[in-house]
Design goal:
Jelly Rolls; 3-stranded antiparallel sheet; 6 helices
């Protein structure tokens, strides 16, 4: 059984390639049990300063944090993604194992393209923007297939975009499905926290059947996430700080687009998050293999060939 988690990244580089991973079969070399894998992760609690010192997490006991290295382990070894994701870590619920079907997480990253002006907040035509995004997803499918990914469809808003002018936080959610995906569709719940010199990205990946819970939990995540002193939106200095070349609409679209008229054609690449799970993994035991996939040497070889 698998849960496919799709996300639109702000990238103009390339699509990572990976081979499909069979999550139902033990690895040929015996691999590592789920229990052993979880023991390698260093979960952190309480107040966390993110690696680039751009923001802090003042987490209650109901949440925990993994640094970028351990986040990479989850994304690659447990959830079947290609290596090389650049993150600031990951927020996870304390009472749910990241290896169970109902697991979810908030991937944290930061873009420093400059201070984003929000004066277009009331003029964005979200229905038109969604149509452009759906067309871009379709156009990217051929390249995705050439890199070993399934074609995918952006079905629509799981939650329509809305911008909080007082807090300078932007919210929206999208529903995706891949060509062979059955059962629950994929949910990307996005929050962007605008800052002095860039944007803090909080992207929750889960299934559509979890959307009500994710909405509530993301309110908690936003509440305990804050920029460090001097990096907030109101700290912008017009005399010294760079202004981004795009506005709020580009944040929703997933990248910097060439503006022709209102918005123009959106060019963006898609990275497919494959989150593989096993029914019954809540009762983790010795001999119950979960971690299937490529070892570091295989992953490096694939990257060299990409």
């Amino acid at each position: 059984m698998s849960k496919i988690l799709a996300t639109l990244f702000m990238s103009s580089v390339f699509i990572f390639s990976s081979n499909a991973i069979n999550a139902e079969t033990p690895s040929a070399d015996g691999g590592m049990t789920a229990e052993q894998f979880l023991a390698t992760l260093k979960f952190q609690n309480g107040k966390i300063t993110l690696p680039n010192n751009i923001a802090t997490l003042d987490m209650p006991p109901s949440f925990r944090y993994l640094d970028p290295a351990d986040t990479e382990k989850i994304l690659v070894n447990a959830w079947g993604n290609p290596p090389g994701s650049k993150t600031l870590g990951m927020i996870l619920p304390s009472d749910v194992s990241p290896l169970t079907e109902n697991s979810w997480g908030v991937i944290i990253s930061y873009t420093d393209d400059g201070h984003i002006k929000d004066d277009d907040a009331d003029s964005i035509k979200y229905d038109d923007l969604l149509k452009d995004m759906q067309d871009a997803v379709k156009e990217a499918n051929e390249a995705r297939k050439q890199k070993g990914y399934e074609a995918m469809t952006l079905l629509g808003w799981a939650e329509a975009p809305h911008y909080d002018k007082a807090s300078h936080k932007f919210y929206w959610a999208k529903e995706y499905v891949t060509e062979t995906q059955t059962g629950t569709h994929s949910l990307n719940y996005n929050i962007r926290v605008l800052g002095r010199k860039g944007v803090l990205v909080l992207n929750a990946v889960a299934g559509m059947n979890q959307i009500d819970a994710i909405k509530g939990e993301m309110k908690n995540v936003v509440a305990f996430t804050d920029f460090t002193a001097g990096n907030g939106y109101k700290d912008f200095d017009v005399s010294t700080d760079k202004v981004a070349e795009y506005g709020l609409a580009a944040l929703v679209a997933g990248g910097v687009a060439a503006k022709l008229g209102f918005f123009g054609k959106i060019f963006a690449f898609l990275l497919l998050f494959k989150k593989f799970v096993l029914i019954g993994l809540a009762a983790v035991g010795a001999g119950f293999y979960k971690l299937i996939g490529r070892n570091k040497k295989e992953a490096k070889n694939e990257n060299d060939q990409a």
